[in-house]
Specification:
Elements: E1 2-5, E2 9-14, E3 20-25, H1 27-39, E4 45-51, H2 55-66, E5 74-76, E6 84-90, E7 93-99, H3 112-119, E8 124-128, H4 129-134, H5 137-152, E9 156-160, H6 171-181, E10 187-188, H7 192-199, H8 204-213, E11 218-221, E12 228-232, E13 235-239, H9 253-266, H10 271-286
Parallel strand pairs: 1-4, 1-8, 2-6, 4-5, 8-9, 9-10, 10-11
Antiparallel strand pairs: 2-3, 6-7, 11-12, 12-13
Helix pairs in contact: 1-9, 3-5, 9-10
This protein binds adenosine-5'-triphosphate and magnesium ion.
EC number: 2.7.1.45
Keywords: Kinase, Transferase
GO molecular function: 2-dehydro-3-deoxygluconokinase activity
Length: 297
Amino acid sequence: MFAAIGECLAEFAPNEAGGYALGFAGDTFNAAWAARVGLRGAVPVRYVTAIGTDWMSDAMRARIEAAGIDAAFVRRVEGASVGLYVIRVEAGERSFAYWRRQSAATHLADDPAFLARALAGARLVLVSGITLAILPPAGRAALLDALGAARAAGAEIAFDTNYRPALWRDADEARETVRRVLPLVDIALPTFEDEAALFGDAAPAATVARLAAAGVRDVVVKNGTAATLGRCGAESFEVVPREVVTPVDSTGAGDAFNGTFLACRLQGMAPAAAVAAAQAVAARAVLTRGALIADEA
Ligand SMILES: Nc1ncnc2c1ncn2[C@@H]1O[C@H](COP(=O)(O)OP(=O)(O)OP(=O)(O)O)[C@@H](O)[C@H]1O
Ligand SMILES: [Mg+2]
């Protein structure tokens, strides 16, 4: 089983008719979605989060289930609701407004026993810097404990920094939290821009070197339309995207990459081939409105 942990939000995205379409998205959920597409049932995909008890929460849970993703560990928080973001497109540029501070997902790590059950038997667990950012200090500690226990029981831990400054008190808090999770990480899937902003890396090679020195076994550094640089175990690689497209909506490209890369690796594909497949799906994501990729990808 592949488990992704984090926050899924309600999304209002402008549609062609000049109105808004309701969707559901969030970095780890988008990755779980892409992994489910890539795995075609070969390995079950589970999404671990918390939702509220209102109709919007019910709609989100239904969406997760309808996608063929296991929602058995979607916790209910009495009286709460899910987070929301609204997309604005002006002159081709997208901006986001968020309502998420009170979202039920901030409670996803309140119950250590729930987390332990959610991750029992997982082969691979994905978390991100966004997952950690939304949690209160006690939740962060509980999540790190649960990841440590899952890893001790044989799971691999995958992590994308996905640094979003607005979700952290300051950069120091983000850096300190990332440094605490790294010793538990087997597969790091950062984007160079985030690592440069947070750790001052001068080039993707510096990110690979820093994370490898921190003990991370597999490091894959995304870098937009530039080459993906990485090192998995003893194997180093640099994979140039075969196709560079004009973005329609770049939201979720990194997430589609992560889910596809992990799905390919779970099925035994070599690292460089898995990167190429992930780039191909990410390129499709860039051409698709909304954060989720189409099944044909
Ligand atoms: N214009 C493009 N054409 C083709 N592929 C692209 C394009 N932009 C991004 N990609 C692909 O998407 C991957 C992820 O993009 P990027 O490095 O920008 O991720 P990101 O900033 O983490 O995205 P996200 O917003 O989802 O967090 C890249 O590694 C690349 O393979
Ligand atoms: Mg990203």
